[in-house]
Amino acid sequence: MEKKEITLGTLLTAVMIIAVCVVVMIPHYKMAVEKAAARSTMADMNLWADAIEDYTTEHSASPSNPNGSISYKKTLVREVLPYIRILRIKDWWGNPYWIWTEGALAQYGLSLEGKGDYLIVSLGSDGIRENWNFSSSDPEAGFFPVETFLDFEKDIVLYNQTFVRIPERTKLRPQ
Amino acid sequence: MKAVQFFRKKVTAEDIFHAVDSLLSYKKIIFICIIVFLALFFLTQTLPSLLTWDTDSPSFYIAAKGMRQGLAVYDQSVFQSLAESELGKSVSVYPYIYLPFVAQCFIPLSLLGNSVYFTLLYILNLVFTFGCLFLVYLLLKETGERANRFLLLFLFLLLAYNLPLRATINHGQVNILVFFLILLAFYLLKNDHDYAGSAVLSLAIVFKIYPVLFLFYFLIKKKFRPLSYTLLNLLGLFTISSILFGIRHWMAYIRMNLSSFNGGSLSAFLKGFSSHQDNNSLKAFLSQLFPIADHALVIVITAAALVLIAFLFTFPLRKRIMAEDFPFIGSVIFVLSLMLLPISWSHHYVIMIFPMAYLFREGVSQKKPILLFLSLLISFLVFSYPRYGGFPFNQIRFMGIGLYLIILLSISLLSIKNWMPHHKKGVENG
């Protein structure tokens, strides 16, 4: 069998081109990963919203979660369990979701006193609550452009089936 | 002019192998130093595990305590109240979802108290890690110093920054022990110790269920004696466990697992974990790929995908599989077990050390640098890629083993004609 040969120069050039490509690609790759995390998180929040809506329709009452925190032991999780197809209690950055339901104190300037009100929140990549409040005069003021990695630290907020704080290009409900 | 001549010099794959080997074998002490450095690097990374109690290790500890006291450890409320009384409320303990035999085996260790128990488990995991590397080396080594030097270096490279290994040690899990038992079983079987090998394999099966897939190896190779020995040993272990601790634990375990087939009656814990972002199994991959599909559809698609894989590996490759021994079939079974399990966490992926080492060895013995490159690439994806990001990036580990299976299938199909004479002749190295 004939031996395949290449010159040392070709080999080194190929290695250098691959190395440059990798270095250039890394930031783009990281941004794609963060965007995927945000997209997947929003899809999960929609699943939670659908489950809460289904539960409320069937029981004529909201599931109960006055303090917002979520874990496997919580009554809310047990209540919506039959209605949720895919159960994830943590967002795609590894931080737990926060879910307030009817009767809880107002959060982010959003009232939860109405019948069937609920609020689902992901604290973003940093897992720290953002100091942001909803403005009823400009409901889209919460939409933010994604320019740097810091933008993924902002919270994602879903209020009664509508995202009120969300990356700008994803205003529509992702599926 | 000399520089121009240097860059115009023709190089072959053999030249590259020779250059790397010359570096490794220049002085024996240099090679030893590299190996020791990699081992120490790994050890320093695992040291923080001594100071923290992760969620799995206390789970085994509490289950062992509960078994000794005759409590229903599969009842989550009983289990959690025992955990709180033993370790306090600050330690988070996952429900016990493993076979009763594991907790029963941990009873002697649990008698030593929690601090000694956690430290001993850490040390045992380290010992078994190096034991696994040694057994992988023994099972894959060939005639020829150079091939074995490359294999040894690759194994220690896998050790150096291995997230699944670190996760196993940090969680205090039993995956390394089970991996060790499987390798030991096949090492014993290779050396014609049929009974001892079967006994060790049956022990691995009662620790984690997936080694039961290795019984297919006996079926494929028509080795009915070790197969019957293993089944008898399993029956024996089950009988001993039932006599000593009662059959009710086994019944509770079966009931808990049967409920997994009915999505509605699943516990929040099991349902949450089967669709968790970090679950890298075929079922979890499909449920993330088709998020609108319901539980039953995902199970059907998973079953169809597995039938397809089984078809590819049985019909087109039947002759090859019949002619092959443990390294090839074992690698396929290790990969399939990760795909087949409904939950495949990062720490389950420690078993990929064997398939990766097999692919690397094939690259060295066939003198194909592309195989070496691919084995290094997949090793990076499987062992070193951080657990992070949204779909599909969180599934890189799973896609890595998918790629591995495709490569193994491809090289098997390509080499089907010349494989048998190639292997009969033996491969000369160095």
Give a quick set of tags describing it.
heterodimer; A: 175 residues; alpha+beta; 5-stranded mixed beta sheet; 2 helices; 6 strands; 33% helix; disordered C terminus; B: 430 residues; mainly alpha; globular
Describe the structure.
The complex is a heterodimer of chains A (175) and B (430). Chain A is an alpha+beta fold. Chain A has helices spanning 8-59, 75-80; strands at 6-7, 98-101, 118-122, 143-144, 156-159, 162-167. Chain A has 2 helices and 6 strands; from the N terminus they run βααβββββ. Chain A has a 5-stranded mixed beta sheet, with helices on one face. Chain A is elongated. Chain B is globular. Mean pLDDT of chain B is 85; it is low at 424-430. With 430 residues, chain B is mainly α. Chain B has helices at residues 2-7, 13-25, 28-46, 56-69, 76-87, 100-105, 107-110, 114-140, 145-160, 163-171, 175-190, 194-207, 215-220, 224-245, 248-258, 268-274, 282-289, 295-314, 318-323, 326-340, 353-365, 369-384, 396-414, 419-425; one strand spanning 10-11. In chain B, α8 (114-140) runs antiparallel to α9 (145-160) and α20 packs antiparallel against α23 (396-414). Chain B contains 24 helices and 1 strand. The chains are: A alpha+beta (175), B mainly alpha (430). Chain A binds chain B through residues 3-9, 11-12, 32-41, 43, 47, 72-73, 77-78, 81-82, 85-90, 92, 94, 175, and chain B through 6-14, 264, 266, 268-269, 271-272, 275-277, 287-288, 291-292, 294-295, 388-394.
Brief account:
Chain A is of the alpha+beta class. Helices cover 33% and strands 13% of the residues of chain A.
Write the layout of secondary structure elements.
The complex is a heterodimer of chains A (175) and B (430).
Chain A: E1 6-7, H1 8-59, H2 75-80, E2 98-101, E3 118-122, E4 143-144, E5 156-159, E6 162-167
Parallel strand pairs in A: 4-6
Antiparallel strand pairs in A: 2-3, 3-5, 5-6
Chain B: H1 2-7, E1 10-11, H2 13-25, H3 28-46, H4 56-69, H5 76-87, H6 100-105, H7 107-110, H8 114-140, H9 145-160, H10 163-171, H11 175-190, H12 194-207, H13 215-220, H14 224-245, H15 248-258, H16 268-274, H17 282-289, H18 295-314, H19 318-323, H20 326-340, H21 353-365, H22 369-384, H23 396-414, H24 419-425
Helix pairs in contact in B: 3-9, 4-5, 8-9, 8-10, 8-11, 9-21, 11-12, 12-14, 17-18, 20-21, 20-23, 21-22, 22-23
